[in-house]
Fold:
Amino acid sequence: MIPTPLYERVLSESGLSRIFVDGVLRRACSRANVNVDAMSSEGLRKALPFIEESLRIYLAPSEVDLRVGAIRKLAEA
Amino acid sequence: MASSDLDVPTLLLQIARRSEEAWLATLRQAIVHGRRKFKLPMPNYADEELRQLARGYVALVEEAIAGNGRPRWDAYIGSVVEGMAKGGITYPYLAHVAAGFQAGAISAWVSEVPEAQRPEAIEWLMVFFADYVGDVINTGIRLGAREWMRADD
Structure:
C-alpha cells in the first residue's frame, strides 16, 4: 500500500534517519494498533505516545520535545 | 585501576554513554572496512544518522541490563536491518560492519574497566555482542537468503 500523506509527513517530522525511520514508526504505530497505510489524525493521536517512546531511543532529549511537538501539530491539523 | 563499586553491566553502560564520540569513530572505521571489502557503492550516512544508530545501540545495552524482555532489541535490529536492506545494503556487508564494530568497541570499552573487573566485562560483552551479530544474521536470513551471496562471488 502507498503510505498516506499524513504518515509521510510524520516520517519527515520525526527527524529519524532514513535508514530506519519507516521501520521504527511502523512498529510504534503497530503497538498502538494503528495502520500507517491508512493513518488518520485520530490514529496519529493514538499512536503519538508510542512514537514519542521510540524517538527517545534514537534522538537527543532536547530534540525529542521539538519533534513530538511538530508531530502533535500534524495530529491536530 | 581499583575495582569500581558499580557492577560490571552498569559500569559498561556508563562507559558506552560517555564515549559516544570514540565509538562513533569505531563505527565509521568499520563502515570504511566494509566498503573496501565488498566493493559496493554504499550510501553515505550523515553523522547524525550514525549518532542515532549509536544511541539506539546504547538503549539496547540499557535494556539488556534491566533484563525485562527485549522489545527495543527486536525493534532496533528489525528496523535497522530491514531499512539497510531496502537501501541496497547486503547482509554480508552488514554482518561485516557489525562484527568489526563490536571488535573495536570491546577493546575500547574494556580498556576503561578496572583491571579486576575486566574478565567479567569481557564475558558480558562477548555474550551481548555475539547475540547482536547473531540476530543481525538471523534477520538477514529471514529477509532473504539470496542476499547472503557475496557480491564478488
Notes: The mean pLDDT of chain B is 83. The two ends of chain B are 48 Å apart (CA to CA). Chain B has six helices and no strands.
